[in-house]
Amino acid sequence: MNRLDTSERFELIRHGEADAWIEAVANEMAESLNLDIRETGRARLLLSGGTTPAPVYQALAELDVHWDRVEVSLVDERWLSPNDRDSNAWLVRESFLKRAESAHFDPLVRVGKPIAECVYTANLQAQHSQSPTLAVLGMGNDGHTASLFPGSKDLGRALESTLPYAALDATGCPGANQWPLRITLTPHGLRKCRQRLLLLRGKQKLEVLKQALESNNAQLYPILNAIDMDGPKLRIHWCD
Length: 240
Prior knowledge:
By secondary structure, the chain is of the alpha/beta class. The chain has one domain (3-239): Rossmann fold (3-Layer(aba) Sandwich). Helix content is 35%, strand content 20%. It has eight helices and ten strands. It has helices at 18-40, 54-61, 88-97, 115-128, 155-160, 187-191, 203-215, 224-227, and strands at residues 10-15, 43-47, 70-74, 76-78, 104-105, 134-137, 165-169, 181-185, 195-201, 234-239. The strands form two sheets. The protein has a seven-stranded parallel sheet, sandwiched between helices. A three-stranded antiparallel sheet has the order 4-8-7. Helix 2 (54-61) links the parallel strand 2 (43-47) and strand 3. Helix 2 (54-61) packs parallel to helix 3 (88-97). The chain starts with 9 loop residues before the first strand and ends with a strand. Pathway: Carbohydrate degradation; pentose phosphate pathway; D-ribulose 5-phosphate from D-glucose 6-phosphate (oxidative stage): step 2/3.
């Protein structure tokens, strides 16, 4: 049996095709949000950008959730205006918030504010909000998750931070493309989430995950910081 399917460090759920993957993830997210709404009256949702989760967000918005009781923010963000089409805020707004119109959205980047002030505001807001119901993560082919890029000069500081969010300069990191300045959820912030989902598509991502596990090096493969932490196991939903 494949060691990815027998790990005690995470749960890997394989889906036969994309539609089943989308439906299963959206339903799981809705169930988690509804549970928190029933228990506390509200829920908090942290979303990642990228093309992989966009169809899941579209499906989620159509499900039966009291969106007016849901606060939405981001796992990470490029140092771009929320109105920039390359920002994670723009993707979340287009794929999710335009359908779940009554949900409240808190972007990480505030137009006209320096990055240090945006990080301060994000941390203040996180500290005064309820713990996130769930965080949706992705993983790059370099093993990064959120904006925790291997090789970044700020990676060690972000990994050791005792605050939910940190600024990170990923200059020289190929996975950051042309957007090296980031605001990212830290492992400390991720640890506060009641549930953590990692959404993967394609065989190459499974190979990267296998390499990360074999390396056991969280600096080289930051995705390990989402796997090897206290609390509920990371749930990985994969389809080809």
